Amino acid sequence: MYQGQVRWRRKRKDLPIIMMEQEIMEAINEQSTVIICGETGCGKTTQVPQFLYEAGFGSKHSVVRNGVIGVTQPRRVAVLATARRVAFELGLHLGKEVGFQVRHDKRIGDDCSIKFMTDGILLREVQTDILLKRYSVIILDEAHERSVNTDILIGMLSRVIRLRQNKYEQQQKMVLSGQTLSPENMIFPLKLVLMSATLRVEDFISERRLFHDPPPVINVPTRQFEVKVHFSKRTETVDYVGQAYKKVMSIHKRLPQGGILVFVTGQREVEYLCQKLHKASMELIANTAKGRVGNEVPVMSEMVSIEGVNMKDINEAFETQLTDQQTERFGSHDEDVPDSVEDESDVSYDSGSESEVEIVGDEVDIEDSKTSENDVVGVLGEKSSLASLKSAFEALAEENASECKSKGNQIPSLPEDCPEQSKYSMEKKTVGDKGPFTSSLRVMPLYAMLPAVAQLRVFDEVKEGERLVVVATNVAETSLTIPGITYVVDTGREKVKNYNPSNGMEAYEVQWISKASADQRKGRAGRTGPGHCYRLYSSAVYNNILPDFSCAEISKVPVDSIVLVLKSMHIDKVEKFPFPTPPEAAALVEAETLLEDLGSS
Ligand SMILES: Nc1ncnc2c1ncn2[C@@H]1O[C@H](COP(=O)(O)OP(=O)(O)OP(=O)(O)O)[C@@H](O)[C@H]1O
């Protein structure tokens, strides 16, 4: 066992979810579906797959539980990062016992026990194997995001569970009547675990067509580290990116070491803010250097360069020979794209959502489509990208990951935000040997269209004297632990695609996030130590304007596109499909008739 793993084993027991392992496992053993609601950072994503693995799920030695533990995430970066983390914590090989699959990329060994994937990948698997025979349990993480993929998947899985149960009962009868069945033909019930920090549980338990018996809900109420929230006194309605810039700079100048994660709405804003911060950092360094006598000039601020990916030693995930069958499929562009999907247009805008199975043909958001085609295609599909991904995974290694850069339990905050709460003396706490004025910024972008290799660079180790600033869209909102992030700056906005049924048009709009999203964003701090979340809007805006939850995506897309997907999955009576939030039955029937008339179904 690596030293880092030994260190982590000691820390692991402090995760709130560890105390609830028995309760969670008992519920999973007794019920076909279980809902786990837990605060951000309590350990759902990384620990529940391990509980299952340790209980024999995914084990070749178990007859009943030998199917793979499947874990879905809404986004690629979360799939890659959590697979790496779980492999590390369990001391297993990434790409072998712990596999992953996202669009274009698949690393799974024959002896795979846990597979991380995007929800779109699993949706596609159901299309080809309705019983999902290779899985013993499916975990749908971040189920609150309620993308169309997740909603259709939940509906499908509720049926798969019933089908598997029926098959299992039939087989038991056959066995009791003296027939013999070979082990490989045996079918066992499938388990489903829905997880989120902020689940709209009612949608799942009240919809009787979905789960006949409402699934039990297990709450994990606490988080490990405190995150202090600071609201702005005033809400900037136009230049919120400018406000974000000011806030980052004032944190950098006045507060102690610790990474900063900033949320804006799209690729264009990410790139603009990155450039501005990069420039400011260089100026700051130049000014500081002028004032120094005989001191070393600090390193320059760094902007991520996709070409500049560091080629290091081989990560164990990539030791598999290139001749192996899985590897041949690695990089296949079309294997996870269903027939109904024309192209890769789902990466052509950046609101943070990514899907492998595309429900609606997205339009390119002109504003936000500056990344070159090569960057998009090159996500991992090109020759050099395999090596780059190896290198990127290395950056997730424990040495980089487990150690929190912030020291101590209490970190001062910016006084202007809530003076009454600032019980710390800025003078005493903010300027150390490597005072904030002297350190450089390592500015990293993070958005859905960015190639996976570049996305993973946010996990790179930060050099001594540097401060990490990640400028992200809501792609960084859930599941991610970026080690050392102490400060979150939340503009409170996101870019979403809205559908107008009266004219049949779709348009991207910047709008307020939900309270649930704001909590997720806050939860990106306080993961490896205590943190602060600066909301660039007032508490009145938070309380009175932000909705509790974002609207389920299914209610915002054209019904015909949903029907098309269901038809591609051979669902006959679309109006009977168990959606968590069903579209109007009449609209479904109308769309079905229309498609039949067009000869599309
Ligand atoms: N890469 C990492 N490096 C260091 N610590 C990590 C890493 N990943 C996870 N952790 C630790 O494990 C904790 C639990 O992470 P996990 O992702 O399982 O939480 P979660 O409950 O799923 O959170 P969320 O709801 O935000 O996804 C983190 O708060 C952090 O302390």
From TrEMBL:
Pfam families linked to this entry: DEAD, Helicase_C
Keyword Heme belongs to the record: no
Domain of life: Eukaryota
Record key words, sorted: ATP-binding, Helicase, Hydrolase, mRNA processing, mRNA splicing, Nucleotide-binding, Spliceosome
Keyword ATP-binding in annotation: yes
Region (Disordered): 326-355
Gene3D superfamilies reported for this sequence: DEAH helicase family, winged-helix domain (1.10.10.2130), P-loop containing nucleotide triphosphate hydrolases (3.40.50.300)
EC top class, as a word: hydrolase
Compositionally biased intervals (Acidic residues): 336-355
PROSITE patterns: DEAH_ATP_HELICASE, HELICASE_ATP_BIND_1, HELICASE_CTER
UniProt similarity note: Belongs to the DEAD box helicase family. DEAH subfamily.
Name of the protein described by the UniProt record: RNA helicase
Species whose genome carries this gene: Salix viminalis
